[in-house]
Amino acid sequence: MAVQQQHPTVRMRRLRHHPVMRDLVRESSLSVNDLIFPLFIKQTEDRAPISSLPGLFQLSLDDLEQEINEVVALKIPAVLLFGIPLHKDSVGSDSYSDNGIIQQAIKRIKKIAPDLLLMTDVSLCEYNDHAHCGVMNEKTGRMDLDNDATLELLNKQVVSHVKAGADVVAPSGMIDGAVGSVRKALDSQGFSHIPIVSYSAKFASSFYGPFREAVESAPEKGDRKSYQMDPANGCEAVRECLLDVNEGADVLMVKPAGPYLDVIYRVKQRFPELPLAAYQVSGEYAMIKAAGANGWIDEKKVVLESLVAMKRAGADFIFSYFAKEVAGWLR
Ligand code: PBG
Known about the structure:
The chain is an alpha/beta fold. It has helices spanning 14-17, 19-24, 64-73, 101-112, 147-164, 178-188, 209-214, 235-247, 261-270, 282-293, 299-313, 323-330, and strands spanning 35-42, 48-49, 57-59, 78-84, 117-122, 135-137, 144-146, 168-171, 201-202, 252-255, 276-280, 317-320.
């Protein structure tokens, strides 16, 4: 590199001329093995479409057979489960009941596809009538999340998920100390082999809108800004990850993904030795779907570009509602 490299000696377009040459120098790639498909399972009779997530459904337990067989046939390696219980209460009891919606779903899926990797979202928001992600108290005059009381419930929840057959747990509530607490709870029950995928840097994002329709968990009072991160903060995301690493997280995560590629990049640069996941969230899916349906963008090309950009930024794997479609395209 001693000689000054410049045009006309250097022509960047040389490597772009032949399509095979372009393939050879491609730096990032996307494969079905990078994708995890999130599933919504509701205690109901029939599947119900989610209007803001076209193509996706709240599935009943009986729908799982067909859905899981499709996922397996597409060679998608893993699913992430969200449960919508029949009855919500103030302490999310369904989430740690041995007969809860998630526990039933896990047992069914394990019978249908024993080798599919089953991850569960560990949180209370879908199970609480107030839709916040923990135990709330109102002693300060406004709704406040009681951090350490919440940890107790998360401990119960992970143990019950794993007893039902979950392979991986993913605490998603941005509750301080959750990773360490859940790690201890699992280890004390003989589950030291179960990995924790931590939603380490999860932002208080408006891109979660359609998800809240999907799981019927938009908080009526207040928002999630006292536990999820301010979208303006990047250094703080790195600090969140550092804490999770110290508490024993096996995989870190940045969420949402597309608008936070800089955070993905920073986290990967800082913790290259840890696997990093990205979550392409419901609002990212909905926007691409809407523009695609209108013919304003080429949906397939935009989806593939959005996902490879996450890989380029540093994500090792991606949670995406497009997983099934992408798996079909990549075949
Ligand atoms: C919390 C949780 C949320 C999402 C995943 N886990 C919602 C929230 O924190 O408000 C959002 C996922 C998405 O928008 O696709 N259990």
